[in-house]
Amino acid sequence: MSVDTVSLTGWGRTAPTTAVRFRPRGYEEAAAVVRGRGPRGVIARGLGRSPGDAAQNAGGSVLDLSGLARIGGVDAAAGVVRCDAGVSLERLLRVLLPLGWLPPVLPGTARVTVGGAIGSDLPGLDHRRAGSFARHVSALELLTADGEVRTVLPGTALFDATAGGLGLTGVVLGATLRLRRVSTGLMSVSTERAGDLDDLLARFTAGGDRLPYASAWVDLMARGRATGRGILTRGEHATPDMRPAHAGRTRLSQRSGAAPGRSLLPGLPPLPGGLLGPAAAALCNEVRYRGSPRARTGELRPVPTFFHASDGLPDVRPLYGRGGLVRYRFTVGYGQEETLHRVVRRIAARRSPAVRAVLQRFGAADPGLLSFAAPGWSLELDLPASLPGLGRFLDGVDEEVAASGGRVCLAQDSRMRPETAAAMYPRLAEFRELRARLDPAGAFRSDLSRRLGL
Predict the structure, then answer these.
(1) What does the pLDDT look like over 75-98, one tens digit per residue?
(2) Strand intervals (E) in 99-136
(3) Residue 349 class from Cβ within 10 Å (0-12 exposed, 13-18 middle, 19+ buried)?
(4) Exposure string (b/e) for 154-174, b if CB count within 10 Å is 16 or more?
């Protein structure tokens, strides 16, 4: 097992803190770290894709599980896989797709681990049908505060606290997942432009769930009549009769663009103020909107390109400046569309340089005590952390979201106040009680847990 002292941040590169990082090679080494933890506790970490501070632990220990990456076995007949928590969804997809299976839920990036997907209870593009990631876990192996490894099953209090529990109930070491059958490696995709937010919401709901996967890019720089305009993309798994005659059954095509993770500005460190000013962001959004088809159906795309197009693009983080980026994701319930309208108008009026903004629909709430997804609309956007007054502005948005019964995503948060989190998550007291009972000494801690009092 390797050990070093490092400064760590989330993917957003905000608020770096220093911790001792352990990289275990097996379950027993991971258990030894938990048993020998110091007074600041320990938190698990995967590939570091959480935008905020959920996988940081200032002055304590961080258990890097990226080396625990064994795929124990795939039952291609039953559609089940057993794997370590450090296996990435990207690798799982490459192993499973040629066998005619997919991971149960695919979020917007494949560069997250199975353990991270469970700890964040990640939703995918078809949440209305499939729910979030943990709903498809048959069993998980959890390293608890006493240094023991337990098998935890769905329907138990510990499972519900661990799903979306951000690593605060223990270290997920492995899981058994139920898979999704597919007949090709292609998606049939429809794309359409919407002139404003009302038009976009109407297009989302007009087709029902005939095409199960849906998300929209929203232009948060547009104002006036065009406020909230966007591009809606929907898809379904292509059947063999849709496939071109020359295409292989599950062939994964190479994606265009820079090598994964390569900086958009190679050799150049993040600039102090970034390059994403309001004028540049507005121009980027205008080009993207005008360059998209008004309406197109039946386009065939490889599965990885449809779900994880951004993974094949250059790393855009240097554009946000040295302060990094803040990812803000919230959800409000159906019937609260006016809140969504007000938030979009506030962002547009402020001229915040938002290039990335994703709108989704969610279905039934997941059983995790702190799971984010709930019936309604979810909007996710990235903003430069160095924007003047950003903290106060987002505090105001928090209040509006909370007043409507909505919530901000804990797994992506980097700046919310503890009283706001308590107002948004009614089962937080239940979560705290279970943690106090199972882990009275506070073995599992993170910068996020201390900041929000989880």
Answers:
(1) 999 999 999 999 999 999 999 999
(2) 101-102
(3) exposed
(4) eeebbbbbbbbbbbbbbbbbb
